[in-house]
Design a protein that fits this description.
Elements (H helix, E strand, L loop, with lengths): L1 E4 L5 H13 L3 E6 L4 E6 L7 H5 L4 E5 L19 E2 L5 E2 L6 E5 L6 H13 L4 E3 L17 H14 L2 E5 L6 H5 L4 E4 L7 H8 L5 E4 L6 H13 L5 E5 L17 H8 L4 E3 L1 H5 L5 H10 L4 E5 L17 H17 L3
Parallel strand pairs: 7-8, 7-14, 8-9, 9-10, 10-11, 11-12, 12-13, 13-14
Antiparallel strand pairs: 1-3, 1-4, 2-3, 5-6
Length: 337
């Protein structure tokens, strides 16, 4: 359930309620806002006497949570979450559209630095690239691993870009923390619960991609695993789901953006590269994503897509990126972003 304290309730009032929740054998998760405090109650609340909590000093209302996720729910946290990376880079709220761009996989240090410099010129805030590459075929290029992370960090130090890259294994959590600014959880790992819990114990932002067959509740419950462990720096990502559609790699479900905004306080970005699997669909779907309310985009960029080691057919060139950015900037102005 959710316990909303009255505006002006004292800290002592909130602490009394928190202790009562603990005495009931449940776990309180207080969210201290600028105007009021909200206390999410974690655990099986079915036997709780809600009237007892309604009668406590400073309590405005007590609401049973109908949805299975609590911490990422809009009910428990009405204000939009803004994930702050420092240096003025923020995702969520009314902040400018965040752009993450770079190659599907990190191929060489020289090429990565070139791409990073080109992204910086265009106002991109995040350098994306795969150091560890999950591939359907076991013989396909799997990434350079930690060596690629070192290249990404050096490129970031030279350009000032933030680094976001995919994590595959719980054993890599601590090692990767020294190189990156944001962990990316790929679609295949959206329900890797041990990985989600491990990332929840780190205070470093997580980009959580939607699984290819996940519905909205499953998507938000995956985010709940991270939040429950104490990490609220979560950004969701719609990257397309698998449907009967045969003319694109995936179906980019832009319906989920306003639904996420309705059900959760977390920011959400869109991946038009994986969402379509085709470079010429990136611009229209990127613009559509921003028009639907997305807080950012993650786009695959390569100077020579035909020579890319992975996903060349959905990667765009620098020139095409310029066209994409021009288009989304026009939409962003209309959206007040």
């Amino acid at each position: 359930m959710i316990i909303c304290m009255r505006q002006g309730a004292t800290k002592g009032n909130a602490e009394h309620v928190i202790q009562a929740v603990k005495d009931a054998g449940l776990e309180p998760a207080p969210l201290f806002g600028t105007e009021r405090t909200v206390i999410a109650v974690l655990g099986d609340e079915r036997d709780l006497d809600m009237k007892k909590f309604r009668a406590m000093d400073g309590v405005e209302k007590v609401m049973p949570v109908l949805r299975p996720y609590r911490l990422v729910s809009r009910e428990s946290h009405p204000e939009d979450t803004v994930v702050d990376f420092g240096d003025g880079v923020k995702i969520g709220g009314n902040n400018p559209i965040a752009i993450m761009a770079g190659p599907c996989s990190v191929e060489t240090e020289e090429l990565l630095l070139e791409i990073a410099q080109e992204m910086k010129k265009r106002g991109v805030q995040f350098l994306r690239g795969g150091a560890f590459k999950p591939r359907t075929a076991p013989y396909a290029f799997q990434g350079h691993g930690e060596e690629a992370l070192k290249w990404m960090k050096r490129a970031a130090e030279k350009t000032g870009l933030k680094v976001v890259t995919e994590i595959m294994d719980t054993q890599h959590v601590d090692m990767m923390a020294d190189y990156i600014d944001m962990y990316q959880v790929g679609a295949r790992n959206m329900q890797n619960f041990e990985l989600l819990k491990a990332l929840g114990r780190k205070q470093k932002p997580v980009l959580l991609k939607r699984g290819m067959s996940a519905d909205l509740d499953e998507f938000l419950l995956a985010a709940e695993y991270i939040a429950k462990e104490g990490n609220s720096h979560i950004v969701l990502c719609e990257r397309g789901i698998r449907t009967f559609c045969k003319y694109s790699r995936n179906t980019l479900d832009l319906n989920v953006i306003p639904w996420v905004k309705k059900m959760s306080h977390l920011p959400i970005i869109v991946d038009p590269s994986h969402g379509t699997g085709s470079y010429d669909m990136v611009k229209p779907m990127a613009m559509a994503g921003v028009a639907a309310g997305a807080d950012g985009l993650i786009i695959e960029v390569h100077p020579k897509p035909e020579e890319a080691w992975s996903d060349g057919d959905q990667s765009i060139t620098y020139k095409t990126l310029d066209d994409v950015l021009d288009g989304i900037n026009k939409i962003a102005v209309v959206m007040g972003r």
